[in-house]
Specification:
The chain is of the alpha/beta class and 255 residues long. The protein has 8 helices and 13 strands. The strands form 4 sheets. It has a 7-stranded mixed β-sheet with strand order 7-6-5-8-9-13-12. It has a two-stranded antiparallel sheet with strand order 1-2. The protein has a two-stranded antiparallel ribbon with strand order 3-4.
């Protein structure tokens, strides 16, 4: 299973993976019955989660809703620390995550729009660097694990800032290497295998370091580097399969 998923992630285009992923999950979850781990998003229990990623790292992907560590942590944060599911909001979800899609669409308080350059589940096809939305249109915006793919990061974050209402907020997660003080990028690296070796994936353009919050603050955001994960016990972290070092970047537009 590990080698199979590793092959899928590395070589199958993302739109194809998205299109067939839920069919795959319906089949494979039958083989993961148990109660050793629990998904905070769908509430299902399994003997373990599926492997995921270029390296096929074990115990990461929920067989039912396809959540990863970051989705399960963010869901818990939204439920316990915000009024996301109770206050009327207009939301834009860029590169919509399948783990969240159904719940967000069905939430009566959320006026929900999805957008992406190529995803088959997106309502609007668009480039995050030039969005077809009015200024100050959205209360909340999610754009997770996207910026590492974008050449002009500041143009993208400035667009995100533009379409948010004053007082609005965005969640802008990225793969983060906390061992690095500074983000590393080199546009001269174009070879697919070399990009994967240096940046983690062939379609990543940089490795973000601990300066990430400062980088996105350049667009005008006040960034809360939220360590919500530290409120959980080690036993809970292992059961929900959170990343114990995950920071949630809550980016606020104060004016």
């Amino acid at each position: 299973m590990k080698q199979f998923i590793r092959f899928l992630v590395r070589y199958i285009p993302r739109p194809v993976l998205i299109k067939f992923s839920f069919l795959f999950s319906r089949i494979v979850q039958l083989f993961y019955k148990g109660n050793q781990v629990e998904c905070t998003v769908c509430g299902k229990e399994f003997r373990k989660f599926l492997p995921y990623g270029n390296q096929g790292i074990d115990n990461r992907l929920c067989p039912h809703c396809l959540s990863l560590e970051r989705h399960r942590l963010l869901w818990s944060y939204l439920k316990s620390e915000t009024d996301f599911f109770t206050k009327p909001i207009k939301m834009l979800h860029i590169a919509p995550e399948q783990a969240f899609l159904k719940a967000f669409r069905e939430a009566k308080n959320i006026d929900y729009t999805t957008a992406d350059l190529e995803s088959p589940i997106a309502d609007v096809k668009m480039d995050v660097r030039q969005m077809p939305f009015d200024d100050a249109e959205f209360d909340v915006l999610f754009c997770n694990h996207v910026l590492e793919h974008i050449d002009d990061e500041l143009k993208a974050t400035s667009e995100i800032f533009r379409v948010l209402k004053p007082g609005g907020w965005a969640i802008l997660q990225v793969p983060l290497d906390i061992t690095k003080e500074l983000t590393y990028e080199d546009p001269s690296i174009t070879d697919r295998r070399e990009r994967e070796r240096i940046f983690g994936q062939y379609d990543h353009l940089r490795v973000y370091g601990r300066d990430y919050a400062k980088r996105i603050a350049q667009a005008g955001f006040v960034v809360d580097e939220n360590l919500f994960v530290k409120t959980f016990s080690q036993q809970e972290i292992e059961r929900y399969r959170f990343d114990a070092d995950e920071t949630i970047f809550v980016c606020k537009k104060e004016r």
